[in-house]
Design brief:
The protein has 194 residues and is mostly helical. The chain is built from six helices and no strands. InterPro entries: CDP-alcohol_PTase-I (IPR050324), CDP-OH_P_trans (IPR000462), CDP-OH_PTrfase_TM_dom (IPR043130), CDP_ALCOHOL_P_TRANSF_CS (IPR048254), Phosphatidylglycerol_P_synth (IPR004570).
């Protein structure tokens, strides 16, 4: 007796669909920021943050992990963070050194991944990376919120936002070092077995 149930392709999962939505929301967020709509940008950013959590939760809870998802999820995270911070610098909300640090770390990691693994080293996201993302996804919305008409009267909101952003930036460096170390270790292992 043959099995007539249709096997779902590896890429056809709800988490991958959510990750695709995250990619699509990035230019929407940028548009709201540069056109002077911090409230709508804030809503978009919250959706980005929730979807980042949701795709991982669904993948684990319902066994819908995939190789495509493992590759796309960190790319979506990095693109979202870079696009968000660049747009916030553009409108004067975020200090440029934070962006420079994040971009340099990501550029080095992208270069190493490209040289050693053709862009996909297949490494899991670290806890430091998750904490870093959480700090930035709290600090960046707070920065946006601090620019709304109500919150702009309260300076402490901007100060608190910058504390979260700088903590996330430092976490980005730490996560980058961990990821680069893991890349180098995997590269050495692959080179020895080749």
């Amino acid at each position: 007796m043959t099995d007539t149930t249709r096997q779902r392709p590896d890429w056809q999962t709800w988490p991958n669909l959510i990750t695709l939505v995250r990619f699509l929301l990035i230019p929407v967020f940028i548009g709201f920021v540069v056109s002077g709509h911090p409230g709508w940008a804030l809503v978009t950013l919250v959706v980005l943050g929730v979807s980042d959590w949701a795709d991982g939760f669904i993948a684990r809870r319902f066994d819908q992990g995939s190789e495509l998802g493992k590759a796309l999820d960190p790319i979506a995270d990095r693109l979202a963070i870079i696009a968000i911070v660049l747009s916030l610098v553009l409108v004067g909300l975020l200090p440029w050194p934070s962006v420079a640090i994040i971009v340099v770390v990501d550029a080095v990691l992208a270069l190493l991944s490209g040289l050693w693994f053709r862009g996909n080293p297949d490494l899991d996201v670290t806890w430091t990376g998750k904490v870093r993302s959480a700090l930035l996804f709290v600090g960046l919305p707070l920065l946006l919120f601090s620019s709304t008409s109500w919150a702009s009267e309260h300076d402490w909101i901007r100060v608190l936002a910058l504390v979260f952003v700088w903590a996330g930036t430092i976490g980005h460096v730490v996560a980058g070092v961990q990821y680069a170390t893991a890349l180098a270790a995997k590269h050495r292992t692959v080179a020895r077995t080749a």
